[in-house]
DNA sequence: TCCTACAATGGACATAGTCCAAGTCAAGTG
DNA sequence: CACTTGACTTGGACTATGTCCATTGTAGGA
């Protein structure tokens, strides 16, 4: 069973069939589904679940900090359940495959204060782009 | 006059009033307009320019590597003409203001080869998020 | 078991972006 | 300078993604 589900329950989330299904769909490493993909998989388990509910639930999970929104491509936002292990993303420019990666170093520390324009900087997102072995082989 | 325009002309681009206007709109530092904003400003200079042309032109500039697409928020893509000076972005989580920043260090070098999953990594995008002084003051 | 506040529904609406067939025009040629 | 041609522009329809809201349903406490 999903750690995610346990954590959500622990926060006093009202547990419904719909939320359970969404949480189950979003489980594992290297998981980066779009809202529509989440909806499609949720429908497979609970046919009457609506798109709006999936959007609402994903949004709530993001607000609670249990899921991260990633927009690696120009298309839909993707949802990454691996919120509790800081990581960044490596995206194939050709097929769109996404992998979680853990670079050395701390990019936050690399931003000198005279480059902060007075901002209070709290967060950094890094997206590496390249070609995956699969796509490199087939071209 | 815009360097951007000169470079485009040098690449054998057919110069039209529409393209000139789009290139003029996209000039300067810390410029990060959405396609619609570009269109709005272009219309001010050339009332009959169409949305499709703005999208086409922006897309071509991106393909030529003269302009960078940035998707810092969940909403529209933004276009950054500063493609020839490598830089990253600092975004205010509250008002959406974007600044160009130049961190120390090279994030590309920070990705160990055993974290590359066989990808040929060519590019990295870094987005810092925080609160700008303006928003910090008014809350 | 009953109540009630919170959640789900689904359909209309909003926003961003793409596509296409037809018309227009930049720029090379003679 | 006029001609020609293929690249460029147009505008409107279309697609994709996401949001809103009034109504209906239900989890979980009393």
Strand-helix topology:
The structure is a homodimer of 139-residue chains.
Chain A: H1 3-10, H2 17-25, E1 33-34, H3 35-45, H4 51-63, E2 68-70, E3 78-80, E4 88-92, E5 98-101, E6 120-131, H5 133-138
Chain A binds a DNA duplex (30 and 30 nucleotides) through helix 4.
Describe this structure in words.
The structure is a homodimer of 139-residue chains. Chain A has 139 residues and is an alpha+beta fold. Chain A folds into two domains: 3-80, Winged helix-like DNA-binding domain superfamily/Winged helix DNA-binding domain (Arc Repressor Mutant, subunit A); 88-138, Dna Ligase, domain 1, CATH 3.30.1490. Helix content of chain A is 34%, strand content 21%. In chain A, strands 1-3-2 form a three-stranded antiparallel β-sheet. In chain A, strands 5-4-6 form a three-stranded mixed β-sheet. The mean pLDDT of chain A is 89. Chain A binds chain B through residues 69, 71, 74, 77, 90, 92-93, 99, 101-105, 107-108, 110-112, 115-133, 136, and chain B through 69, 71, 74, 77, 90, 92-93, 99, 101-105, 107-108, 110-112, 115-133, 136. β6 (120-131) of chain A pairs antiparallel with β6 (120-131) of chain B.
Instruction: Report the portion of residues of chain A in β strands.
Output: 15-25%
Spatial strand arrangement across the major sheet of chain A: 1-3-2
Quaternary state reads homodimer
CATH superfamily of the largest domain in chain A: Winged helix-like DNA-binding domain superfamily/Winged helix DNA-binding domain
């Amino acid at each position: 069973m999903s750690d995610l589900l346990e954590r959500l329950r622990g926060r006093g989330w009202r547990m419904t069939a719909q939320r359970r299904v969404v949480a189950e769909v979003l489980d594992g490493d290297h998981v980066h589904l779009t809202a529509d993909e989440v909806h499609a998989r949720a429908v497979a388990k609970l046919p009457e679940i609506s798109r709006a509910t999936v959007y609402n639930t994903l949004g709530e999970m993001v607000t609670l900090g249990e899921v991260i929104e990633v927009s690696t491509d120009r298309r839909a936002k993707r949802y990454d359940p691996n919120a509790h292990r800081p990581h960044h993303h490596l995206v194939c420019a050709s097929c769109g495959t996404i992998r979680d990666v853990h670079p050395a170093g701390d990019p936050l520390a690399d931003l000198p204060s005279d480059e902060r324009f007075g901002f209070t900087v709290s967060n950094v997102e890094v997206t590496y782009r390249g070609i995956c072995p699969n796509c490199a082989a087939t071209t």
